[in-house]
Amino acid sequence: MAAYGLYSHIQSNRRRSLALLVGLFLLVYVLVYAGALTAEALSVDADLNTLMQRAWNDLISAAPIATLGTALWVVIAYFFHQSMIDALTGGREVTRAEQPQLYNLLENLCISRGITMPKLKVMESDALNAFATGMNEKQYSITITSNLLDRLNDAEVESVLGHELTHIRNGDVRMMVIAVIIAGVVSFVAELVFRLWFYNGFSFRGSRSDRRGGGAGIAILIAIALLVLAYVLSFIIRLALSRSRELLADAGSVELTKNPDAMISALRKIEGRGELPGATSAVMEMCVDNPREGFGELFDSHPTVESRVAALVKFAGGHDPGPIALPPPADDASEETTEAPATAGPWGASTEDSGALPPSPPPIGTPSGPEPSAGPWGPHRGG
């Protein structure tokens, strides 16, 4: 991947993302119009053209309020979205003293590109995943699951960090957070209008249907169609933002680490093992991989691992080992480990089958000499 091509794609992706974000914001006004049309149909006895004109006038009057309301929602999320995500996922910030090797890997990547180092967080989870969040340099953070640290070697962890750091560099994180916030506004308004129609529409229209000559009924059908359209489009726009950025983040990681094979093997290990229990779809869309599948991949938030690996093989010259089978956790494999002692690695004992992947190189900065029995991440089982 030539640097010119990569950065050209990044700039093009930013322009497309901005256009999609503007479109997402415009959906708020579509919903306001649908709500106004519903309200007029339920309160005024008139033909369809009159109802639509009155609803348009209502939209013009309500546009400043809708704009301010959406902006206020964004401001609130600007200050509190990270605490809400941490409360949902259980991520906690770690220091160099707690995770020296992990901290050094991220710090080295940031130094190499002159990037302000984001906060580093670890969440206790059996899932293999990571995600970046934040709206500015003071808020940016990268969260990694504890099991990912156990199962991936240093080069693979560095690739995952490079992937998330690329999201921050490209402005993807800020864009996705704003998109999720505005999509939340769309969902809220859509639900509000649906409830208005559901609780008041049937009885009101039923008592006046003869006098209205069908105008109100058609107006409400148009409003419902607009609501459904806005909701579906908001979802598709979020997916488009997410899908388009993942391939560029993979490429950016390779550009940072110069190691396409590590990115490929990391994706293969994470593949199908990234589900975060209790996480919302918005959080999963920010992760390295989202195992939640849509209808025929149309509504998947991420490209398939197969397509991402194929791109890295084709454009970055990487080598695909194919799907990687990981051993069970240490508790489940205790009997196997007692029968066949594992070979010691730079981070302690390794229980992974030696045929799955070649041994990983020692960590950056590890001195030669006797190998330590355990490292700052504890026993390593994913080399």
Give the beta-strand count: 6
Determine the mean pLDDT.
Answer: 78
**Overall radius of gyration:** 25 Å
Judged by helices, strands and strand pairing, the structural class is mainly alpha
Physical arrangement of strands within the biggest beta sheet: 1-2-4-3
Note down, in words, how this protein is organized.
There is one protein chain. By secondary structure, the chain is mainly α. The protein has one domain. The protein has 11 helices and 6 strands. The strands form 2 sheets. A 4-stranded mixed β-sheet has the order 1-2-4-3, with helices on both faces. Strands 5-6 form a two-stranded antiparallel sheet. A hairpin with a 7-residue loop joins strand 3 and strand 4 (141-145). Helix 2 runs parallel beside helix 7. The two termini are 27 Å apart.
Quick summary of this structure?
By secondary structure, this protein is mainly α. It has helices spanning 3-43, 48-89, 100-113, 146-151, 154-169, 172-212, 215-257, 260-270, 281-284, 305-316, 334-339; strands at 92-93, 119-123, 130-133, 141-145, 344-345, 348-349.
